[in-house]
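[Discussion] Sanity-checking designs against the backbone

I'm trying to build intuition for which residues belong where. Below is a C-alpha cell string of 198 positions. I'd appreciate it if someone posts a full sequence so I can compare it with mine line by line.
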C-alpha cells in the first residue's frame, strides 16, 4: 500500500514495526481489505450514503477484527507497549473514534492525504522562504505560492493561468473576480471570440 491511511498512518508505512519482533502483516491485510472496499465503492460510483452503508456492511466487521487484534497485542503480552508496534497500537487506541469516522458519517474519507500534501507544501515553502532577501520578495513568493496551490486545487495549470493573467492584465484589473483559477477558463472562452471578431 502506498501513502498514508487515516486509520493508521504509522501502520501503513511499516516503519514503526521494524524494531518489533511481531509482524503487522495481518493488520496491514485488514487495512488493505478496507481499501479494497473503498475502491469498489468508487468503481460502482456510489453516493456518499450508499458508500457509508457499503462500508458498514463490509468494512465494519474487518475494523472490529482489527480492533480485537489490536487489543489482544497488549492483553496477551504479544507486544511491548514501548516498541514501535506498541506505539502504533497506542496511537490507534487513542484515535480510534475519529479515525473510523468513515464508518459513521457519509462522505468521510479513509485518508487525509490532500491535507497532508497541503501541509507539506506549506512547510516546504516556509523552508524556501528563508532565502528571500527582502520583505517584498517574501510577499511576492507568498503570493505566487498561494496562486499555484489554488490552481492545483482547481485542477488548473498554474503556468497557463499565470500566463493568461499577464496576457489579459487590463481585464484582470477591471474584473478580477472573473480571472480566478476556478473560472478563468470560462472567461477566456468568451473573451477570445470577442477579440477575434474585432
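Best answer:
Here's mine. Compare freely.
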Amino acid at each position: 500500500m502506498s501513502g498514508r491511511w487515516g486509520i493508521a498512518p504509522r501502520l501503513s508505512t511499516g516503519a514503526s514495526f521494524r524494531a518489533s519482533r511481531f509482524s503487522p502483516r495481518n493488520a496491514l491485510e485488514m487495512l488493505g481489505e478496507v481499501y479494497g472496499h473503498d475502491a469498489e465503492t468508487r468503481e460502482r460510483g456510489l453516493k456518499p450514503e450508499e458508500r457509508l452503508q457499503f462500508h458498514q456492511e463490509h468494512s465494519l466487521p474487518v475494523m472490529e477484527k482489527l480492533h480485537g487484534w489490536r487489543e489482544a497485542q497488549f492483553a496477551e503480552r504479544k507486544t511491548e507497549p514501548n516498541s514501535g508496534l506498541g506505539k502504533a497500537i497506542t496511537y490507534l487506541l487513542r484515535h480510534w473514534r475519529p479515525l473510523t469516522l468513515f464508518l459513521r458519517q457519509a462522505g468521510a474519507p479513509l485518508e487525509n492525504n490532500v491535507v497532508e500534501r497541503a501541509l507539506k507544501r506549506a512547510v516546504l515553502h516556509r523552508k524556501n522562504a528563508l532565502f528571500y532577501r527582502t520583505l517584498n520578495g517574501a510577499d511576492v513568493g507568498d503570493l505566487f505560492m498561494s496562486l499555484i496551490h489554488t490552481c492545483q486545487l482547481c485542477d488548473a495549470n498554474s503556468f497557463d493561468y499565470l500566463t493568461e493573467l499577464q496576457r489579459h492584465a487590463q481585464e484582470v484589473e477591471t474584473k478580477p473576480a472573473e480571472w480566478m483559477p476556478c473560472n478563468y477558463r470560462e472567461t477566456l472562452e468568451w473573451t477570445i471570440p470577442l477579440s477575434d471578431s474585432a
